[in-house]
Amino acid sequence: MSIPIWQVDSFTSRPFRGNPAGVCVLENPRPDQWMQSVAAEMNLSETAFLLPEEDGFRLRWFTPATEVRLCGHATLASAHVLWQEDTVDPSATILFHTLSGPLSASRRNELIELDFPSRPPHEVAPPSGLVEALEVDAQWIGCDAEDFIVVVADERAVRGLAPDFRALRRVSARGVMVTAPADDQQTDFVSRFFAPACGIDEDPVTGSAHCCLTPFWAARLGKDRMIGHQISARGGAIHVQLAGNRVMLGGHAITTLRGELLC
Which domain holds residue 208? Predict the structure, then answer.
Protein backbone atom coordinates (compact mmCIF):
# COMPACT_ATOMS: atom_id res chain seq x y z
CA MET A 1 0.00 0.00 0.00
CA SER A 2 1.35 3.43 -0.95
CA ILE A 3 1.63 6.27 1.57
CA PRO A 4 1.32 9.88 0.42
CA ILE A 5 4.20 12.25 1.07
CA TRP A 6 4.76 15.92 0.26
CA GLN A 7 7.66 18.34 0.23
CA VAL A 8 6.70 21.84 1.35
CA ASP A 9 8.79 25.01 1.51
CA SER A 10 7.92 26.75 4.78
CA PHE A 11 8.20 30.37 5.88
CA THR A 12 8.19 31.54 2.28
CA SER A 13 5.65 32.27 -0.45
CA ARG A 14 8.17 31.48 -3.20
CA PRO A 15 9.25 27.98 -4.22
CA PHE A 16 12.81 26.89 -3.46
CA ARG A 17 13.13 29.41 -0.63
CA GLY A 18 12.44 29.06 3.07
CA ASN A 19 12.91 25.66 4.71
CA PRO A 20 11.80 22.47 2.90
CA ALA A 21 10.07 19.84 5.03
CA GLY A 22 8.74 16.40 4.27
CA VAL A 23 5.15 15.66 5.36
CA CYS A 24 3.98 12.06 5.57
CA VAL A 25 0.34 11.36 6.42
CA LEU A 26 -0.20 7.91 7.92
CA GLU A 27 -3.37 5.85 8.32
CA ASN A 28 -1.80 3.48 10.84
CA PRO A 29 1.19 3.69 13.23
CA ARG A 30 4.58 2.83 11.77
CA PRO A 31 7.76 1.77 13.62
CA ASP A 32 10.19 4.45 14.75
CA GLN A 33 12.97 2.97 12.63
CA TRP A 34 10.77 3.14 9.53
CA MET A 35 10.09 6.83 10.13
CA GLN A 36 13.78 7.45 10.73
CA SER A 37 14.62 5.66 7.48
CA VAL A 38 12.08 7.73 5.55
CA ALA A 39 13.53 10.92 7.01
CA ALA A 40 17.02 9.81 6.00
CA GLU A 41 15.73 9.02 2.50
CA MET A 42 14.10 12.46 2.20
CA ASN A 43 17.36 14.03 3.47
CA LEU A 44 15.65 17.24 4.55
CA SER A 45 16.26 19.02 7.83
CA GLU A 46 12.97 17.51 9.13
CA THR A 47 10.27 15.17 7.94
CA ALA A 48 6.95 15.26 9.80
CA PHE A 49 4.78 12.20 10.37
CA LEU A 50 1.07 12.71 11.03
CA LEU A 51 -1.32 10.13 12.49
CA PRO A 52 -5.01 11.04 12.95
CA GLU A 53 -6.37 11.02 16.49
CA GLU A 54 -9.85 11.73 17.79
CA ASP A 55 -9.31 15.45 18.38
CA GLY A 56 -6.41 16.14 16.02
CA PHE A 57 -3.16 14.52 14.93
CA ARG A 58 -0.17 12.87 16.54
CA LEU A 59 2.84 14.70 15.11
CA ARG A 60 6.48 13.59 15.21
CA TRP A 61 9.55 15.09 13.55
CA PHE A 62 12.72 13.35 12.39
CA THR A 63 15.93 14.78 10.98
CA PRO A 64 18.00 12.44 8.78
CA ALA A 65 19.80 11.39 11.98
CA THR A 66 17.40 11.61 14.94
CA GLU A 67 13.96 12.47 16.30
CA VAL A 68 13.54 16.02 17.66
CA ARG A 69 11.19 17.37 20.32
CA LEU A 70 10.07 20.55 18.55
CA CYS A 71 10.06 21.75 14.94
CA GLY A 72 8.32 24.83 13.60
CA HIS A 73 8.74 24.67 9.84
CA ALA A 74 7.60 21.03 9.54
CA THR A 75 4.55 21.85 11.72
CA LEU A 76 3.73 24.75 9.40
CA ALA A 77 4.17 22.40 6.42
CA SER A 78 1.91 19.80 8.06
CA ALA A 79 -0.92 22.29 8.58
CA HIS A 80 -0.51 23.53 5.01
CA VAL A 81 -0.87 19.97 3.64
CA LEU A 82 -3.89 19.13 5.81
CA TRP A 83 -5.75 22.20 4.57
CA GLN A 84 -4.49 21.89 0.99
CA GLU A 85 -5.73 18.30 0.71
CA ASP A 86 -9.08 19.11 2.42
CA THR A 87 -8.25 16.69 5.22
CA VAL A 88 -9.22 19.46 7.64
CA ASP A 89 -11.76 22.23 7.13
CA PRO A 90 -9.92 25.42 6.08
CA SER A 91 -11.57 27.41 8.89
CA ALA A 92 -10.68 24.89 11.60
CA THR A 93 -7.83 25.12 14.09
CA ILE A 94 -5.63 22.02 13.94
CA LEU A 95 -4.47 20.41 17.20
CA PHE A 96 -1.18 18.50 17.20
CA HIS A 97 -0.07 16.17 20.00
CA THR A 98 3.74 16.24 20.21
CA LEU A 99 6.71 15.53 22.45
CA SER A 100 6.54 19.23 23.43
CA GLY A 101 2.88 19.03 24.40
CA PRO A 102 -0.17 20.26 22.48
CA LEU A 103 0.50 22.68 19.62
CA SER A 104 -2.00 24.25 17.26
CA ALA A 105 -2.19 25.85 13.83
CA SER A 106 -4.78 28.26 12.51
CA ARG A 107 -5.20 30.61 9.59
CA ARG A 108 -4.73 34.33 10.22
CA ASN A 109 -5.48 36.25 7.02
CA GLU A 110 -2.81 35.08 4.54
CA LEU A 111 -0.56 33.48 7.16
CA ILE A 112 -0.52 30.13 8.89
CA GLU A 113 -0.06 30.84 12.61
CA LEU A 114 1.42 28.32 15.03
CA ASP A 115 0.83 28.42 18.79
CA PHE A 116 4.12 27.27 20.37
CA PRO A 117 5.68 27.39 23.85
CA SER A 118 7.85 30.37 24.75
CA ARG A 119 11.42 29.41 25.67
CA PRO A 120 13.08 32.52 27.12
CA PRO A 121 16.84 32.13 27.44
CA HIS A 122 18.95 32.72 30.53
CA GLU A 123 22.52 33.94 30.47
CA VAL A 124 25.24 31.31 30.79
CA ALA A 125 28.99 31.07 30.62
CA PRO A 126 30.00 29.88 27.14
CA PRO A 127 30.61 26.14 27.02
CA SER A 128 34.04 24.99 26.01
CA GLY A 129 34.63 25.36 22.28
CA LEU A 130 31.46 27.29 21.36
CA VAL A 131 32.94 30.73 20.68
CA GLU A 132 36.00 29.18 19.04
CA ALA A 133 33.83 27.07 16.70
CA LEU A 134 31.80 30.11 15.65
CA GLU A 135 34.78 32.48 15.50
CA VAL A 136 32.68 35.42 16.69
CA ASP A 137 32.90 38.26 19.16
CA ALA A 138 29.93 37.32 21.36
CA GLN A 139 28.15 40.15 23.19
CA TRP A 140 25.86 37.84 25.18
CA ILE A 141 25.41 34.05 25.44
CA GLY A 142 22.41 32.23 26.83
CA CYS A 143 20.51 28.98 26.50
CA ASP A 144 16.94 27.73 26.56
CA ALA A 145 15.73 24.16 26.94
CA GLU A 146 17.84 22.75 24.08
CA ASP A 147 19.84 25.42 22.28
CA PHE A 148 22.44 28.12 22.83
CA ILE A 149 21.79 31.70 21.72
CA VAL A 150 24.76 33.88 20.81
CA VAL A 151 24.20 37.61 20.34
CA VAL A 152 26.61 39.54 18.12
CA ALA A 153 26.96 43.21 17.30
CA ASP A 154 25.19 43.52 13.97
CA GLU A 155 23.69 41.82 10.93
CA ARG A 156 27.00 41.87 9.10
CA ALA A 157 28.53 39.64 11.78
CA VAL A 158 25.67 37.15 11.40
CA ARG A 159 25.97 37.07 7.62
CA GLY A 160 29.73 36.58 7.77
CA LEU A 161 29.64 33.48 9.97
CA ALA A 162 31.62 30.48 8.73
CA PRO A 163 31.53 28.00 11.64
CA ASP A 164 33.84 25.07 12.15
CA PHE A 165 31.09 22.45 12.06
CA ARG A 166 33.32 19.64 13.25
CA ALA A 167 34.15 21.65 16.37
CA LEU A 168 30.55 22.84 16.78
CA ARG A 169 29.36 19.23 16.73
CA ARG A 170 31.22 18.69 20.00
CA VAL A 171 29.17 21.36 21.81
CA SER A 172 26.49 19.64 23.90
CA ALA A 173 23.24 21.11 22.54
CA ARG A 174 20.60 20.49 19.90
CA GLY A 175 21.72 23.64 18.12
CA VAL A 176 23.16 27.13 18.25
CA MET A 177 21.42 30.29 17.08
CA VAL A 178 23.37 33.46 16.34
CA THR A 179 21.39 36.69 16.24
CA ALA A 180 21.63 40.48 15.97
CA PRO A 181 19.39 43.49 15.30
CA ALA A 182 18.36 43.80 11.66
CA ASP A 183 19.65 46.50 9.33
CA ASP A 184 16.36 46.57 7.38
CA GLN A 185 13.71 48.72 9.07
CA GLN A 186 10.96 46.31 8.02
CA THR A 187 12.66 43.51 10.00
CA ASP A 188 13.39 43.53 13.73
CA PHE A 189 16.12 40.92 14.09
CA VAL A 190 18.13 38.43 12.05
CA SER A 191 19.48 35.01 12.90
CA ARG A 192 21.15 31.85 11.67
CA PHE A 193 20.82 28.39 13.21
CA PHE A 194 23.37 25.57 13.26
CA ALA A 195 22.64 22.00 14.39
CA PRO A 196 25.48 19.69 13.26
CA ALA A 197 24.86 17.38 16.24
CA CYS A 198 21.45 16.59 14.68
CA GLY A 199 22.90 16.06 11.21
CA ILE A 200 22.09 19.59 9.97
CA ASP A 201 25.04 21.95 9.61
CA GLU A 202 22.79 24.95 8.95
CA ASP A 203 19.00 24.93 9.07
CA PRO A 204 17.49 27.32 6.50
CA VAL A 205 14.62 28.66 8.66
CA THR A 206 14.03 27.42 12.20
CA GLY A 207 10.60 28.01 13.73
CA SER A 208 11.49 26.43 17.07
CA ALA A 209 14.50 28.76 17.48
CA HIS A 210 12.05 31.66 17.41
CA CYS A 211 10.46 30.31 20.60
CA CYS A 212 13.67 31.58 22.19
CA LEU A 213 14.41 34.54 19.90
CA THR A 214 10.93 36.03 20.37
CA PRO A 215 11.02 36.52 24.16
CA PHE A 216 14.67 37.57 23.97
CA TRP A 217 14.10 40.32 21.40
CA ALA A 218 10.72 41.31 22.86
CA ALA A 219 12.55 42.21 26.10
CA ARG A 220 15.41 43.95 24.26
CA LEU A 221 13.25 45.92 21.80
CA GLY A 222 10.23 46.56 24.02
CA LYS A 223 7.67 45.14 21.57
CA ASP A 224 5.74 41.87 21.42
CA ARG A 225 5.02 41.77 17.65
CA MET A 226 8.06 41.48 15.41
CA ILE A 227 9.41 40.05 12.18
CA GLY A 228 12.50 37.87 12.24
CA HIS A 229 14.56 37.10 9.14
CA GLN A 230 16.69 33.98 9.10
CA ILE A 231 19.48 34.89 6.72
CA SER A 232 20.59 31.47 5.51
CA ALA A 233 21.29 30.90 1.81
CA ARG A 234 17.59 30.12 1.21
CA GLY A 235 16.30 32.65 3.75
CA GLY A 236 12.87 33.09 5.26
CA ALA A 237 10.71 35.43 7.32
CA ILE A 238 8.77 34.60 10.49
CA HIS A 239 6.09 36.88 11.94
CA VAL A 240 6.27 36.46 15.71
CA GLN A 241 4.19 37.54 18.67
CA LEU A 242 4.88 37.00 22.36
CA ALA A 243 1.66 36.09 24.19
CA GLY A 244 2.46 35.31 27.82
CA ASN A 245 4.10 31.92 27.98
CA ARG A 246 3.30 31.21 24.33
CA VAL A 247 4.81 32.38 21.04
CA MET A 248 2.79 32.79 17.84
CA LEU A 249 4.80 32.00 14.71
CA GLY A 250 3.31 33.10 11.40
CA GLY A 251 4.42 32.29 7.89
CA HIS A 252 3.59 31.16 4.39
CA ALA A 253 4.09 27.73 2.82
CA ILE A 254 4.12 26.31 -0.70
CA THR A 255 4.08 22.70 -1.92
CA THR A 256 6.90 21.81 -4.32
CA LEU A 257 6.56 18.04 -4.58
CA ARG A 258 3.87 15.38 -4.10
CA GLY A 259 4.52 11.64 -4.24
CA GLU A 260 3.96 8.19 -2.77
CA LEU A 261 6.06 5.94 -0.59
CA LEU A 262 5.91 2.41 -1.96
CA CYS A 263 7.53 0.58 0.95
Answer: 122-244
